[in-house]
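Aim 2, interim progress: modelling of the guanosine-5'-triphosphate-bound target.
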Amino acid sequence: MDLFDRTEQVRTGAGEKAVLVHLDLPDALGREDLDEFHHLVTSSGVEPVTELVSKRDRPDPALFIGSGKVEELAELVRSHEADVVLFNHALSPGQERNLERAVKCRVLDRTGLILDIFAQRARTHEGRLQVELAQLQHLSTRLVRGWTHLERQKGGIGLRGPGETQLETDRRLLRDRIRSIQARLDKVRKQRAQGRRARDRSETPLISLVGYTNAGKSTLFNALTTGDVYVADQLFATLDPTLRKVRVPGVGPAILADTVGFIRHLPHRLVQAFRATLEETVNASLLLHVTDSSAEERDANVDAVNEVLEEIGANQVPVLHVYNKVDRLDQPPRVERDEHGLPWRVWLSATTGEGFDLLYAAIAERLADRWVDRWLRLPPSAGKLRARLHEAGEVLDERATTDGGMLLRVHVNRVHFERLLREADLDEEQVKVPDPSVADAETPSYNPERSHRAG
Ligand SMILES: Nc1nc2c(ncn2[C@@H]2O[C@H](COP(=O)(O)OP(=O)(O)OP(=O)(O)O)[C@@H](O)[C@H]2O)c(=O)[nH]1
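Predicted structure of the complex, ligand included:
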């Protein structure tokens, strides 16, 4: 059995009996939600047998919960013959090790649990690579500071109590494996970027579904595409983004992307690991932010999704909120508009289809203003930006200025436009100029040789 067979065993097994541990902490110290924890646990396929909920001002540095509670926990594990203890919190490698010794049972923290669910749900090649990378990185923190995971999993005669040599070998194997996965992921990402550039050029808008896990994204995605995406009443039913071509009345063809469900306090390393999955979100023309309107935690879920969007740099993308599951509220579908009169929130039901007509109309209206058509004055140093604008949209006119810079008239997707300017460290006000043929503003010298319609 090599190291990577053993990492497989970090996963929870379906049907395993679990004792759940939740510590009620002050907000500032990372308060977690108990209902969401139950959802997470059910999604992982283990069977919760009992739970230990306790309150503390701060976690114990060595055991997370107090030593009295640890004894109680050990007793619960014994009496319920539990296979695993699941914590609704991130544990340090040391805490995990101490707890395992004290309760004589496998302990998995929140990050490990989320990774386990991701591992079960990953279906595409890229998704699986991403999960494996995140798991190995999680394991490597345990390997460097602790050693329990591998030591414990070795088991078997002749494999118990590895010496330094084995530890070094495993570290090296782990490093090599991480590097090889990173290289393969880079390759997959490049292929994906090529697909994206082709889409950009074809001007097909990309609409990305995002939302708190279990909000109904896959149900909506299926209903809109009549496709067959995995739907389940479990968290993270969707891990890999699924792209489908759809026809939106009033818009024409568009690409719809389903993405992984967001949760509160998604460990930072996981956000990094799933960045490629979420890249579709960063580059979308419009985000459909789906929310379960019947959920008690509705507003907190919306905030949690917004936080992740900010973290992945997608907070600049226009958003249309979809308040799903209106059938549960016994309310008719409707549209709310923002202070500019634009559709802002559509209340509908993905299962009954009520409100889809409102959604289509709202999407069409929101996408209508997605292009910018304007004159820009670029300094000589902005050659790269000029090239990127050519790639991202259409350059309708281009003139050299006496200072070696450029005047361009661009027709480009607003989202891409704003992103490119940000990347070039410029803002719109610095480069925007009036149409030179009508403006009284400084007229640049015009070099007909260099004027062309860009292809
Ligand atoms: N009553 C009702 N239930 C819905 C509606 N839309 C989705 N559901 C249910 O909500 C649950 C979650 O739906 P999914 O589509 O899997 O949710 P998701 O947001 O894709 O979930 P993740 O992949 O975990 O992020 C399923 O049991 C759906 O049947 C709706 O409009 N009304």
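Residues 168 and 400 are 61 Å apart (CA to CA). Residues 1-11, 144-162, 440-455 have pLDDT under 50 and may be disordered.
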